[in-house]
Design goal:
With 560 residues, the protein is mostly helical. It has 25 helices and no strands. It starts with a helix and ends in a 7-residue tail after the last helix.
């Protein structure tokens, strides 16, 4: 029974440690996130600066995964080169060992409960009383994280001590070190934190459950296990992100294999030559040493390594655009035609995104589209809503870059047409953003147990589907739309907005609904109205000629 309780305590310790790491990460990220990003950008102009920057930021944030994800975002945005990104990740792997030094040097020697318990008390008190203030909230997160980190460590420590008393671990001492290497990889793969694996290993080593060499092998396995989280984050990303992740993975694999091959000489260096008798200090020394050696090995090779990574994922290296990447501004009329197709593609995917937020069936729209094969190849419909939104933002940016290059090459008539098309893209993106801003409102209404809210959602869902079917039909006809038809759609949008609002007010007089629900419904109605108008303007600019489009702009477009 005592063994079972100790196992539960060990699991609780791991959970507390993970939660503590999350709180520390969130607190430091929000208290100093922008400063760290600026620091990284400034210091990472060369490889050595990148290593130093990665190490410093990770040492403070204590999350190499978070720094790696930050680097991925910068690479995706084109801020970092492949070479500098890899330099930062090299430094991040070194920086994360600081936490191990803290745990090894004071975590098992001092009675940290004297500090941990008050930290948890003060953090919890500040969070409840002053949690609405962001600075205080994240300060509270930091104190809670600090306290829970060592409470979780204490749980793991005592649980391991009980296990050693009740269970004979000596029978496993003769197992191959490769088994312990695999154990380290699996543990880190499951908990997604090499710091937790290190804390567990230090606890087991301190309690005498495992020897020094198996502990080293476990920590070595954790070096590769922690990369899986970054690999998953890059799925669906652009080629640059995937290359950074591949580079990080290959680097950690190389580090693990090399260190495992030379494990005995390294252990001899630490124990005999460096004369480190404390196994806890020896373990964190090993972790720091192999990361330092890997920096020395890889730093001079970053240029050829970056060029090697450029050979991969060329099929995803293309932009989000499907047509304008093939345009040649020296043939402006052909380029304009491709630009029109790209705008059409953008509007089509914008409509799919918006309808998806209402959980509408878009299969018919996808099947009828000229872009079915393109979206299948790009897996647009399989992307998450967040990924679709980022895709549309990227495509809009590429449309604007193409617009700037093409506009100086066109005559007046074609230039006016180009202006209409870019206006259509802007309006389409505005429609998308308005809906993206109220995703929480949509979820709130669609999952509500209150009939007044749920029926309000269903009404708008049906009207949105009808409206977008009309939009899609007009675009699919590929003909100049009638001014009167667009005017009718505009009137329908206004009528839907007003009638829905009036009906909601009428129903609210006889239903139990609180102030927040009323605000949610009104905000949802307003943003949907704004989005519908913006999409109508996109369709108008895409289909009407210049004169009719200008005439349509005289239609009153603001309503409260």
């Amino acid at each position: 029974m005592e063994v079972f309780e100790s196992i539960l305590k060990l699991c609780a310790g791991v959970g507390l440690f993970l939660f503590a790491m999350y709180l520390l990460e969130e607190s430091l990220k929000n208290l100093s996130g922008r400063n760290f990003k600026i620091f990284l950008q400034r210091i990472s102009k060369n490889s050595i600066g990148g290593v130093v920057g990665g190490a410093v930021v990770t040492a403070v944030l204590q999350s190499s995964s978070m720094v790696s994800l930050m680097v991925l975002a910068f690479v995706g945005a084109g801020v970092f080169t492949m070479k500098n990104a890899m330099a930062i990740i090299l430094g991040a792997n070194l920086g994360t060992t600081l936490d191990s030094w803290v745990v090894a040097t004071i975590g098992f020697k001092l009675n940290l409960e004297l500090i941990a318990y008050p930290a948890v008390f003060i953090g919890g008190f500040l969070l409840i009383i002053y949690g609405k203030r962001n600075t205080i909230k994240y300060l509270a997160y930091f104190l809670l994280g600090f306290g829970l980190l060592f409470i979780g460590l204490a749980f793991m420590k005592t649980a391991m001590e009980v296990q050693v008393k009740e269970f004979n671990f000596s029978q496993y001492a003769a197992m191959s070190l490769s088994v312990f290497l695999l154990i380290g990889f699996i543990i880190t793969l499951l908990v997604q934190s090499s710091s937790v694996t290190m804390a567990l290993t230090l606890s087991a080593l301190h309690a005498g459950a495992i020897g020094f060499a198996p502990a080293v092998a476990i920590v070595l396995g954790a070096e590769t296990g922690t990369t899986i989280k970054i690999v998953l984050s890059a799925l669906g990303g652009n080629a640059s992100k995937k290359r950074v992740v591949l580079g990080n993975f290959l680097f950690n694999i190389f580090l693990t294999v090399l260190a495992f091959i030379f494990l005995k000489p390294i252990l001899y260096l630490i124990v005999d030559l460096m004369n480190i008798s404390n196994p806890l200090i020896g373990l964190v020394t090993f972790s720091t040493l192999i990361n330092l050696v890997s920096i020395v090995i890889f730093l001079p090779l970053l240029n050829p390594f970056a060029k090697f990574l450029e050979l991969f994922f060329k099929d995803t290296d293309a932009s989000a655009a499907a047509f304008i990447g093939h345009a040649d501004v020296e043939e402006p009329e052909t380029a304009l035609d491709l630009f029109r197709k790209e705008t059409n593609y953008f509007i089509h995917n914008s409509m799919l995104f918006i309808l998806r937020q209402f959980e509408s069936d878009t299969k018919a729209m996808q099947e009828q589209s000229n872009f079915k094969l393109i979206n299948e190849k790009r897996k647009f419909n399989a992307k998450t809503p967040e990924e679709q939104y980022e895709f549309l933002k990227q495509l809009q940016g590429e449309l604007h870059v193409a617009y700037l290059a093409l506009r100086i090459k066109l005559n007046d008539e074609n230039s006016a047409r180009l202006n209409q098309l870019i206006s259509a893209a802007r309006s389409s993106m505005y429609a998308v953003k308005s809906i993206n801003d109220i995703v929480k409102n949509i979820t709130n209404l669609s999952s509500s147990s209150k009939d007044i809210k749920f029926n309000f959602f269903l009404l708008h869902k049906k009207e949105t589907e009808n409206l977008y079917n009309e939009f899609n039909t007009l675009i699919m006809q590929n003909e100049k739309a009638e001014f009167e038809k667009l005017q009718q759609l505009y009137d329908a949008i206004e009528n839907n907005y007003s009638s829905a609002l009036n009906s909601f007010y009428k129903d609210a007089q006889h239903a139990a609904i609180d102030d927040l629900d009323i605000t949610t419904a009104i905000n949802f109605n307003r943003e949907l109205f704004t989005s519908d108008k913006a999409m109508l303007m996109a369709v108008k600019d895409f289909l009407l000629d210049e004169k009719l489009a200008k005439d349509f702009n005289d239609v009153p477009s603001y309503k409260t």
